[in-house]
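$ ./design --mode recover --in tokens.txt
reading tokens...
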């Protein structure tokens, strides 16, 4: 797998115009203008760069991580450093939109370097891209125009600060628009929660919880064909609880059933639920229910 440490090396490989800044590139096309065509195909590659792009795929598939990106509507795509990117010769983009690429060192030492880690969409797979409404698209494009002006004009001591400020604004709007997307896809959110709980039930009924232990959130997300971060953010938006909280809720509910069985110790309950250490199970139970497993058993035992 090829890895590109600099933006220039990455663009040279992509057969794109050399960036005007060693750590930043802004490509934009509207009206009768068109974006330059990238390299026709590529085996898996990684870079040290962030990428924010508004594009439409006319035909073909783009693989990002392990997931196919397959839609025809315009969407905002976010890619993080060291994510695996691959595409083939069948792919064809509509050559309008924009693409901003910047090396991770471009924002080092700035507030954005800390902020950017909080934006979950850089961890989403590409099929979880942000689909913009026409109004939202205009807002994003106006911010990109401001970045482009600073990028193409004679850069001075203020340019980098202005560009980073605009990038921060763009990402904050993207975060807001993702929240709207989660709300608009409420049916999908409900489906995800239902399938999430079904997967946990099947896992528990198969005995894997006892034999293998508590499944990781990543394992569950893979079963649902979504990224770990997208699953958590979707459920958080819909229910107010993250995937970890839903997993813990499932375990506590199962624990309540098992605790009321006769002749089974607290430790045995913990092991049956996949906990390696009974003490952790007891702490989690008390944290969620306000009483210990023993107190719950005494309170609700069947005489």
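writing sequence...
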């Amino acid at each position: 797998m090829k890895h590109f440490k600099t933006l220039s090396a990455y663009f040279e490989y992509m057969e794109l115009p050399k960036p005007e800044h060693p750590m930043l590139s802004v490509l934009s096309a509207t009206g009768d203008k068109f974006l330059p065509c990238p390299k026709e195909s590529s085996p898996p590659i990684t870079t040290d760069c962030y990428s924010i792009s508004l594009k439409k795929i006319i035909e073909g598939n783009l693989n990002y991580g392990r997931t196919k990106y397959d839609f025809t509507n315009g969407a905002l795509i976010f890619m993080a450093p060291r994510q695996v990117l691959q595409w083939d010769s069948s792919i064809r983009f509509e050559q309008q939109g924009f693409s901003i690429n910047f090396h991770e060192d471009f924002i080092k030492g700035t507030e954005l370097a800390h902020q950017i880690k909080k934006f979950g969409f850089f961890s989403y797979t590409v099929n979880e891209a942000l689909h913009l409404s026409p109004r939202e698209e205009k807002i994003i494009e106006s911010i990109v125009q401001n970045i482009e002006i600073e990028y193409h004009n004679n850069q001075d001591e203020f340019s980098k600060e202005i560009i980073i400020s605009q990038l921060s604004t763009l990402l904050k709007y993207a975060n807001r628009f993702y929240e709207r997307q989660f709300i608009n896809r409420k049916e999908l959110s409900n489906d995800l929660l239902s399938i999430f709980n079904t997967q946990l039930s099947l896992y528990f009924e198969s005995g894997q919880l006892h034999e293998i232990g508590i499944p990781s959130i990543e394992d569950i997300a893979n079963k649902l064909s979504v990224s770990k971060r997208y699953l958590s953010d979707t459920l958080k938006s819909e229910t107010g609880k993250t995937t970890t909280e839903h997993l813990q809720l499932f375990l506590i509910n199962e624990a309540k059933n098992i605790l009321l069985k006769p002749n089974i110790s607290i430790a045995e309950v913990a092991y049956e639920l996949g906990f390696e250490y009974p003490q952790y199970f007891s702490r989690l139970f008390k944290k969620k229910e306000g009483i210990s497993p023993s107190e719950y058993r005494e309170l609700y035992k069947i005489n």
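exit 0
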